[in-house]
Design brief:
It is a single chain. With about 70 residues, this protein is α+β, with helices and mostly antiparallel strands. Helix content is about 45%, strand content about 15%. The chain contains three helices and three strands. It has helices at about 15-25, 25-35, 50-65, and strands spanning about 15, 40-45, 45-50. It has a three-stranded antiparallel β-sheet. A hairpin with a 2-residue loop joins strand 2 (about 40-45) and strand 3. The longest helix has 14 residues, at about 50-65. It is globular, with a radius of gyration of 13 Å.
């Protein structure tokens, strides 16, 4: 069904805990990146989510600055 709309079955947004598990980077480092404005976060009510696209963009940014 998702493919009908051009979407894959991957999640579109991740919690901080999920982003930590996916990237292997500590939660405190992710929070620092968020505070510095390098990692975009979407607020949904009280929850903070990182979109898949923004997580990929942040990793790309790390590669270009390394």
């Amino acid at each position: 069904m998702l493919q009908e709309f051009g979407l894959s079955s991957r999640k579109l947004g991740y919690t901080f805990a999920e982003a930590v598990a996916l990237t292997g980077i500590s939660g405190s480092q992710l929070y620092q990146e968020r505070k510095a404005g390098r990692l975009k976060v979407v607020k949904v009510g009280r929850r903070a989510l990182i979109t898949h696209t923004d997580l990929e963009a942040w990793i790309e940014l790390l590669q270009t600055t390394a």
